[in-house]
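Dear colleagues,

I hope this message finds you well. In preparation for our joint manuscript, I am sending the PORR domain-containing protein (Mikania micrantha) sequence together with its predicted structure, so that both groups work from identical material. I would be grateful if you could confirm receipt.
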Amino acid sequence: MKKDPDLEAALTRNRRWVVNNQIKNIILRCPDHVASVSFLQKKFKTLDLKGKAINWLKKYPCCFEVCLKDDEYHCRLTKKMMFLVHEEETVKDMQETVVVERLVKLLMMASNHRLNVSKLGEFKNNFGLPDDYLIRIIPKHLDMFRVVNYGGRKNSMEIELIKWKPELAVSTIEKRSQKQGCSPSFSCSLPSTWVKSWEKFREFDSLPYISPYTDPGRLANESKESEKRTIGLLHEFLSLTLWKKASIMKLGHFKREFQLPEKLNVLLLKHPGIFYVSNKYQIYTVLLREGYNGSELVEKDPLVVVKEKFGELMQEGLHEYNRRHHMLNLEKKRRKGVIAIKQEKNDPVYELSDEDGNPGGIFDPEERKRFYKVLFEDKVP
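The corresponding structure tokens are as follows:
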């Protein structure tokens, strides 16, 4: 699939957020919300990261505080980060009804209206489900859900829907068609110059739309009708996610529950006007094209808005780190006589620490004030 720079940029931006969000969650699970850097280092493999954990943490001084205690480095979240953590929890409480509806819709699309708890856990963040949703949400809605274990094994625990909600069995495409007063149809987000792709899309879209909430039992395997329903199901699944995207590998774990084809990636690539497939970071990801305008989401869930504030805080710290790194390199060159740094009368003089040659050191309070004044051209409190 031809690369889309905007959608690739969206994935790049999300990558750093995902990693730091996982680090944040690890720290929050630790006693007193403090984790040793050596413990975080062990978690780096699961986060698909290389290098030293302490260097990564120091790149984001607005998010993580690193301190030396008992000859060992420890990390905690900054006050700004903790403020966002509390804000996120507040939004999750307010969004509980929406999250319950998402879970109901997922179960209504699944065969036997059941989903494996372990598999669903891989997507809980995609749908805004809290980590403790099994004890935080399910017990409050025993009229809708129940936890079952028909297999008897620990990893065969499932969530089952016990009450069908007809008012929720309406797909995003059907809602849009009702507003527009037309028949349900997919939208194609391709340039007009992609003539052959447009022709294939029109041929596919000319078939009657089949709701993902209908029973697929009557459809013949590998028929055009079956493919139409599967594409509708994948469209609906991605529409329910916060970022309108999902890992293809994780999606493949639901082949039995959603009756997906063995070669799921091939099916997605057949419909480039609806889906965008990327191999950024050697991870195959599918994005819903209509969910994005350029690199930005068309509609942002309240949880996404809070998480974007986290991203802005990350960027603020990274900006500070990069500037410090640059200035430290200039200072080293000046000391070696490689360059002479010219200073205007009104330019502030920065006293930089060259301890261990590590540009990630934490500023002293007065130095931080001067940096923020220069970086953000704002009055220092």
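For the figure legend, we might mention the following. The longest strand covers residues 64-69. Residues 3 and 278 are 8 Å apart (CA to CA).

With kind regards,
E.M.
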